[in-house]
Amino acid sequence: DAMVIQNPRYQVTQFGKPVTLSCSQTLNHNVMYWYQQKSSQAPKLLFHYYDKDFNNEADTPDNFQSRRPNTSFCFLDIRSPGLGDAAMYLCATSRVGQGSYEQYFGPGTRLTVT
Amino acid sequence: GENVEQHPSTLSVQEGDSAVIKCTYSDSASNYFPWYKQELGKGPQLIIDIRSNVGEKKDQRIAVTLNKTAKHFSLHITETQPEDSAVYFCAADTGRRALTFGSGTRLQVQP
């Protein structure tokens, strides 16, 4: 089945130690998103790639970076994680164009910062 | 930018009853309104969506209604079952390939 895959599902990192989360998709969608979701809150968009075009949200901290080396993969880099960055990180994909808007989410990576 | 408000924040119903969740949005240019179901420890799952050119859409036990004039849309679940228990999010498109989400509704279906 075509899907959005996130690895790892659970990640523990130390305060200040860089961490990378990965997302891959078999849907061949042209847009990939990264969201942060804290407990009992709505997903908050950090940034998205439209093909190779990177789109950052205005309030996303500089501590968060992203890379999309090809259509299928997208990475979230947290350069110096703080305790406040502990959250679920969700990757989503969409095929924008031809009137399509649906976003499909992966299972998420739960990040713990110690 | 787009602002989406969702009510209620929690909803408890008896199995077999109906559940209704309501959302309002601020940007009259929004054209796409999806609903997501999120179970504990999982990513949100798209369950139904509606575009601005229709007023109602139904898929088995779930339906969504849209009133563009009033800028509100609602999710209706009939004949609720315990497996419907989850957090439900509404959303609206921002016109920038992005969605703005409501704050979520925790639905509990009591057997």
Please, could you describe this protein's structure?
- The complex is a heterodimer of chains A (114) and B (111).
- Chain A is built from no helices and 11 strands.
- Chain A has strands at 4-7, 10-13, 19-25, 31-37, 44-50, 53-56, 64-67, 73-78, 87-94, 103-105, 109-113.
- In chain A, strands 2, 4, 5, 6, 9, 10 and 11 form a 7-stranded mixed sheet that branches. Chain A has a 4-stranded antiparallel sheet with strand order 1-3-8-7, with no helix packed on it.
- Chain A is globular.
- The mean pLDDT of chain A is 93.
- Chain B is an all-beta fold.
- Helix content of chain B is 0%, strand content 57%.
- In chain B, a hairpin with a 4-residue loop joins strand 7 and strand 8.
- The model of chain B has no long low-confidence stretch (mean pLDDT 94).
- The chains are: A mainly beta (114), B mainly beta (111).
Which terms summarize this structure?
heterodimer; A: 114 residues; mainly beta; 4-stranded antiparallel beta sheet; B: 111 residues; 5-stranded antiparallel beta sheet; 11 strands; 0% helix; 57% strand
List the SSEs and their pairings:
The complex is a heterodimer of chains A (114) and B (111).
Chain A: E1 4-7, E2 10-13, E3 19-25, E4 31-37, E5 44-50, E6 53-56, E7 64-67, E8 73-78, E9 87-94, E10 103-105, E11 109-113
Parallel strand pairs in A: 2-11
Antiparallel strand pairs in A: 1-3, 3-8, 4-5, 4-9, 5-6, 7-8, 9-10, 9-11
Chain B: E1 4-7, E2 10-14, E3 19-25, E4 32-38, E5 45-51, E6 56-59, E7 62-67, E8 72-77, E9 86-93, E10 99-101, E11 105-110
Parallel strand pairs in B: 2-11
Antiparallel strand pairs in B: 1-3, 3-8, 4-5, 4-9, 6-7, 7-8, 9-10, 9-11
